[in-house]
Structure formats: C-alpha cells, structure tokens
Design a protein that fits this description.
Number of strands: 9
Structural class: alpha/beta
Shape: elongated
Helix content: 25-40%
Order of helices and strands: EHEHEEEHEEEHEH
Bound molecules: iron/sulfur cluster
C-alpha cells in the first residue's frame, strides 16, 4: 500500500490484531476497528519482539535506587536491556509515522500511569509512570498525536487525537508534494 494515501499509525498489536497479551488474549478497541479503513496501521508487540512468548508470565516496572527496570517476577528475568535495545532500534528505524495508539497500563506500551512497584514480590505499587516503549515514543515524537486506547474512549480526547492525526498526515502529504 502507498503510505502517502492514509495516515500511518503505529498501534499495539494486542488491540485487535493478534492475541499476543501475556494471557493469550486480545483487547477490543472500537476506535481501532473503526479506523481500519481510514488508517494504515503498523502493528507492534514489543514483548514478542524481545522473545517473550505467548502465553507468558507478566512483566512489571520496578523502581529501585531511582532506576526503573522491566522484570518478570515469576522467572526473575530482567528484560530491561533487551527492551531498551529493541525500542531504540525500532524507533530510530521508523521512517514514516503520523501517530500512535498504544495499550494503556502496559509496562511496555503504556504512555502514562503505568504501575511501578518497589520490588518483584507481593508489594503495593509506589509510583506510576510510562512503559518503556510508551515513554520513549512520548520523548522522541512530542509533535505527534500519541494516545492510549483507554483515554480514547473520552469524546474530547478522541476528537483532539483524530484532528491532530489527520492534520499531521495532510501536512506530511503536502510537504512531500513540494519536495
Ligand atoms: S500491551 Fe504492548 S507489549 Fe503488551 S501485548 Fe499489547 S502490544 Fe504486546
């Protein structure tokens, strides 16, 4: 498909494209479904990309000594470096993108308010922040519309997101026409 014809949106793959969640399920997003005809979706599951299978033991954000890590408590696996390497490599290779729709609350995809724990055991959360991909996307693409599917259930947020998305797309098309 010619990606100059539709907005290009990177989307979390579990939002209706593949049953890749830790428990083997997928999440239905009415907005994502509705946009399939209007948008060119580029699907991505960072946890699959770093070799975590399906189903898998959940991973979580852990903050210790001021440093945030991505760990799998059931196995003791530290996924931090693998995820950082993948996210850096993926985002730096992304040539055309007009926006992002990412899964909320995920330690990988979440953009905000993701639970952060002080350790791997049965401990209460102590903080909230962004997941590894979600945080890096917000940092690298501050000029683009970036939302999670939960916030997009809000009428006003959804309208703002779509307005920005199609404005960015039109601008990209126009710039290409003059280049
Ligand atoms: S939230 Fe992100 S990492 Fe988790 S299953 Fe969905 S796409 Fe994969």
């Amino acid at each position: 498909m010619d990606i100059s014809e539709k907005p290009v949106v990177v989307v979390s793959k579990c939002l209706g494209f593949a049953p890749c969640r830790w428990n083997g399920l997928t999440i239905h997003s009415a907005l994502v479904e509705g946009l399939k005809a209007e948008v060119h979706f580029v699907t991505l599951c960072p946890e699959i990309e770093i070799g975590l299978g399906v189903p898998r033991d959940p991973i979580r954000l852990i903050k210790q000594k001021g440093e945030i890590k991505l760990v799998q408590p059931a196995t003791g696996r530290d996924c931090t470096q693998a995820m950082e390497d993948f996210v850096n490599s993926y985002l730096s290779g992304l040539e055309t993108v007009d926006g992002f729709i990412l899964k909320e609350k995920s330690p990988s995809c979440g953009t905000r308010r993701v639970k952060i724990y002080p350790g791997p055991g049965q401990v209460p959360l102590t903080d909230r922040g962004a997941g590894f991909l979600g945080g890096a996307v917000m940092e690298k693409f501050p000029h683009l519309p970036i939302e999670d599917e939960g916030r997009l259930n809000n009428d006003k947020i959804r309208e703002q997101f779509l307005t920005r998305l199609f404005a960015v797309f039109r601008f990209r098309k126009r710039r290409k026409a003059f280049s």
